[in-house]
Amino acid sequence: MTLDGGCYCGDVRYRMEGDPICVNGCHCRDCQTLTGAAFAVNAMIEADRVTLSKGEPVTDGFGTKCGRCGVLLWATHPMFGDRILFLRVGTLDESERLSPDLHVFVRSKHPWVVLPQGVPAFETLPGEGETLFSAEQQARVAAAMQV
């Protein structure tokens, strides 16, 4: 899968090459505030599979965004460092092609958000003994972390 995306004003454009490791719906209060929505949809993908095709985004404590319009394009997570990106699916030109494989931090989910049946959901992050990733997904994360 190859998908292009960018910010609202068009100053920054990027390409995501390959399927995401997973796509999550994050219902934490931080994601709600950062997106101005009920939850964020993030495509977790290796950083080397995302390339800039236009512009120079800026990175701050919240993530990487367009300096002109301020749209957050992707962020990192302390568990994964800068080798795994959490790309904001809404910034993709064809964002409808990706839907969440799982939902996290549903303890702070808005009550009117109805989660689809059969999609794993976690009160926070998966706890000890709970499997978040398949063997293939775990291998991709491990490979990215060793680069």
TrEMBL record:
Keyword Metal-binding annotated: yes
Keywords recorded for this protein, A-Z: Lyase, Metal-binding, Zinc
A Pfam family annotated for this UniProt entry: GFA
Transmembrane stretches, start-end: none
Coiled coil: none
Signal peptide per UniProt: none
Source taxon at top rank: Bacteria
Annotated CENP-V/GFA domain residues: 3-123
The keyword Transmembrane is assigned to this record: no
UniProt-listed PANTHER family: CENP-V_GFA DOMAIN-CONTAINING PROTEIN, GFA DOMAIN-CONTAINING PROTEIN
Family: Belongs to the Gfa family.
UniProt name for this protein: GFA family protein
